[in-house]
Amino acid sequence: MTSINSLVVPTSQRYPHIVATGFTTAYLGDERSLREFIVGDYICSQIAQSKGNCLLYLINDSYDPLKYSQLRIALNKDEKMLAQFEHFCGCPIAEVPDPFGCHESYSQHFSDAFLKRLHHLDIHPVMLDTYQAYRSGYYNQFIETTLENYSQIQEAIAGEFDSLIIHDLLHMKCPKCHHMDATHIHQVVNGKVQLECNRCNTNRWYDSKELQGKLGWKLDCPARWNLYKIDVETFSKIHLAPKSTFVVAQFVSKHFYGGNIPVPVKYGVVQLDKEISYNLIKILPPIILKKLFLEHFNRDIKITKESVEHFCHRFHIQPGISYIDYIQKELPKHAIRTAARESMQAEGVSHPSEEILAFFGKRFAKFYYNKDHFIGFPNLQTLATVDTATARAARDIIVHVLSVRDEHQTEEANTHARIGEYLKDQHKAPTKVVQFIRRILGQPQGLRLSILLTLFPIDYLRIIQIALDFYTNSASDSIDENTKLALKLSKSSPWVNLTPNSISL
Ligand SMILES: [Zn+2]
Ligand SMILES: [Zn+2]
């Protein structure tokens, strides 16, 4: 991983330090876009540790024109909504209404959703809305400089970067049709701008004060470096290539806009398999998702279902326990313990971090292994599938387990050891009987029976015992008492609704 020691924060004594990231919230999209912010947040925390307070900015390019390809993703390819909204393509996304009607604008809707996603990852940037900043006049000095020096800036860039021509230093909104994706500036002379719009086929001169718009991408970047005094900015590698954004922006900043140039931090491109996209955020706890994106962050990464599982084998949630170990060995126990606690009215609530782990772990287990973690009702239909001797042996085991559990052992390990010892005896617990009990518990595979019988709620096991009593007729004297108990439990217990029909003997 790139060390912060290899990053040099500019020598200025400005404070707090500023790390910038950027995004166009034209749609939410999958997890690929998260890398920039995970890296930015990591750099920010490293700077804060070594140099003091540091802020993470998220510059929301809400003044960019909406593209049809973005709208399609945003509206989930809904043809009816697309027909309603496609005429907004080419307008600034901040000026498009919210298709879902819950926010002030399209841009607000998606920036809100994106911020929620970042907060979920415990990343809390300061969002700066570009449209508002332009409309409030914060960019005016840079726009004026650009208009005053229009051809000089173009010539200087062409001279420095091997005849690179930037035709439109500014993207103006057409005053007639309000779109900005098909306008072109032909000339700028003494504060007058000759603007052509290919959407509404106009071509005329305007006083620059009549026009609204934003700087082109390679000029917007150095403008905001100087406006917001940015120290470090994250860039994907394409923006750091020769003649690309960063080097041109560096040149423009130095010669025209004030000279502030942040340290660029490069992050590699993320490729994400369709099979796993939109799932990563559901199945990985934030700490693991962040680590996945941060590892070797300046290199490209290809994320597949296999590579994520492999990573989760390597990621240790505790010394010696990987996330996969947790899902396979600890999560099933956690699921039963939680269910047991719920039946006891939540005594001894587990630690929040354990709950978070279990929350994501359950979804991971479902996605990867199609495994659900919950306790169902006891499968009493199973009872009549075995002979009376097997049922009687099962009943004896349950009775023994309940007597051990009733001793209120404080140490779960002691209870488990005693139950395990009992089950080792092949005479008392032959394989056939063990499998029979597992079927009643609805746990044909997974945790050992000794663990299941240690963790399953006591009232749940009592119900099984009562049902076995009925079946084996071995407790005829106490049936009346047991029936009363069963009916009482059926009212208070979440496990079973013991009506006469629910036990088919
Ligand atoms: Zn909304
Ligand atoms: Zn127009």
The CATH class of the largest domain: Alpha Beta
Mean pLDDT: 88
Largest sheet: 5 strands, parallel
- Label the CATH architecture of the largest domain: 3-Layer(aba) Sandwich
Report strand order across the widest sheet: 3-2-1-9-10
- Quick one: overall form? elongated
The number of E-state strands comes to 14
**What is the CATH superfamily classification of the largest domain?**
HUPs
Q: Which regions contain 5 or more consecutive residues with pLDDT less than 50?
A: 1-5, 474-479, 496-505
The end-to-end span amounts to 64 Å
Number of helices: 20
Helix/strand-derived category reads: alpha/beta
> How large a portion of the residues is in β-strands, by DSSP E?
5-15%
Rg over CA atoms:
33 Å
CATH topology of the largest domain: Rossmann fold
The percentage helix is 40-55%
List the main descriptive attributes of the protein structure presented here.
disordered N terminus, three-stranded antiparallel sheet, 14 strands, single chain, 20 helices, 4 domains, Rossmann fold, 505 residues, disordered C terminus, binds zinc ion, alpha/beta, five-stranded parallel sheet, 47% helix
